[in-house]
Amino acid sequence: MQKFFYFFLFLLISSCGEKVDLLVYNAKVYTANETFDESTSFVVKDGIFIEVGGEDLRSRYNPKSVVDARGLTIIPGLIDAHCHFLQYGLENQQINLRGAKSFDEVIKRVKRFVSDNNPEIIYGRYWDQNDWELKEFPDKSQLDILFPNTPVVLERVDGHAYLVNQKTLDISGIDSETRVDGGTIVLKNGKLTGILIDSPMDLVKKSLPSPSIEDRVKALVLAEEKSFEYGLTTVDDAGLSKENILLIDSLHKSNILKMRVYAMISNDKNDVSYFLNHGILKTDRLNVRSVKVYADGALGSRGAALKNPYSDMRNHRGKFITSIKSMDSLARVIASTNFQMNTHAIGDSANHSVLKIYNKVLGDKDDPRWRIEHSQIISPEDFQMFNSKIIPSIQPTHATSDMYWADERLGVKRLKEGGYAYKKLLDWSGIVALGTDFPVENINPFHTFYAAVARKDLSMLPYDGFQSENSLSRYEALMGMTSWAAYSNFEENEKGSIEKGKMADFVILDRDIMKVNEGQIFSTKVVATILGGNVVYSNRL
């Protein structure tokens, strides 16, 4: 009777207020606004926050739905500033080679998958020779024996190297005399090994059938489900073709796909020209105003472009995927528009060249917000070239994934002076945008948050953190996954914080990530993800 009385009283009081869709109270809300205010309640109408307060707002509104958060923590919807959303969905339909401790284990997983699925083309992903006792690239000999008539394409964890069999090489027209700028076809004693690094991979992609529309739709829906489960409400897909961007737009319009997508256009001449000529494409779910460029490859496959040779490979400095001349020319074209240039740069040589180009062409641009994706290895003298016009887009779990072998590639001194230097990058640019780079790394953004603040892996090692002087504070990490990420997407006026007038994207957590012990952060679970005021994921239903 007492419970019924209080409920009835609440209805009488609330029925006098403004009609709204949702009222949340009794929460620990980190708004991530400019002054990083905390609040306890907020109100949503038509998918927008209309009031955020530190007091109980129930007496002033007549909501359709009320949520007593019971003291749980609420943060803005998380933004993954660098990922491969479509690719994640596609690769979840392929052989998962992550964590294989030897090439023999890779072969066993491939044989098991083929036996169970009998695919026309064998695709796998996530092998990493750095996890093996023999830390060398494998070769194709076993694949040739096992699968002489079926194409096999096994992609390295970083997405910058393939291991393929002879059938794939034949279909792709690759022989020992083939040469491709911007990458390497690895030979041993003059013979093909099946290892293709960076640009030669495109010969394979162009020669094998692309995923069907049905496969891509299935992949996008799968990626959306997993993203919502982890509290992601906006994803920055770092490289999409015109065809796939327009597919996402059509799925949004038909309400098959709800995820908000910041789509970077892959650096294909025709695709880039199409969007530059048509102008920015902007809806409440899709934003197309940037071009993704690859300056170099990845450190793990020795494709990152370094100023000085790799410490473990004499006379090898990696390679530029896109030439400096081509990047300079493209930058001038993009700078004449309102589009943004987002360039993948891992090695110190690549970062140096991109920074020089950016600073040269952005002199007269007031607010370009051009990004360097990864900003991974920077020479000490080059940090000063970062500024408020150039945003480092970084992925903290790369540091904790690479820390066990990065010194082998770079040497201790070079790694210490400018490797994975997130705090130093923040000091020079004023903000950083944080992402996971999934599926290269785990999709879980709380692993990102943990790696950023603790600089440790999930075993909570090393004890003092990896180069911990470059850790971010919890405030900086959360801002990098919300408000600063929104700013890097030119979307700070519509999302990224829990404020009046912004989209009602928010996440309810099972713990306070700003206060719990460091070792509890990465185990954080999402209780519910809300997009535009609507529940898109809940583990309590």
The poorly predicted ranges are: 1-14
CATH superfamily of one domain: Metal-dependent hydrolases
Give Rg in angstroms.
24 Å
List how many beta strands DSSP finds.
Answer: 25
Task: Specify the helix fraction band.
Answer: 25-40%
Instruction: Calculate the mean pLDDT score and round it.
Output: 94
- Please report the first level of CATH classification, the CATH class of one domain: Alpha Beta
Strand pairing plus helix content: what structural class? alpha/beta
Oligomer class = single chain
How does the major sheet shape up? 9 strands, mixed
Q: What's the total helix number? A: 18
- Beta-strand content: 15-25%
CATH topology of one domain: TIM Barrel
User: What is the CATH architecture term of one domain?
Assistant: Alpha-Beta Barrel
What separation lies between the terminal Cα atoms?
26 Å
Overall shape = globular
Q: What does this entry show, briefly?
A:
The chain is an alpha/beta fold and 541 residues long. Helices cover 31% and strands 25% of the residues.
Question: What topology does this entry show?
Answer:
Layout: H1 2-14, E1 18-25, E2 28-30, E3 38-39, E4 41-45, E5 48-53, E6 61-68, E7 73-76, E8 78-83, H2 85-91, E9 95-96, H3 103-117, E10 122-127, H4 141-146, E11 152-156, E12 161-164, H5 166-172, E13 183-188, E14 191-198, H6 201-207, H7 213-229, E15 232-240, H8 242-253, E16 260-266, H9 269-278, E17 281-282, E18 286-294, H10 324-335, E19 340-345, H11 348-361, E20 370-374, E21 390-394, H12 396-402, H13 406-410, H14 412-418, H15 422-429, E22 433-434, H16 445-454, H17 474-480, H18 483-488, E23 506-509, E24 526-531, E25 534-538
Parallel strand pairs: 1-6, 2-7, 8-15, 9-10, 10-11, 15-16, 16-18, 18-19, 19-20, 20-21, 21-22
Antiparallel strand pairs: 1-4, 2-3, 4-5, 7-23, 11-12, 12-14, 13-14, 17-18, 23-24, 24-25
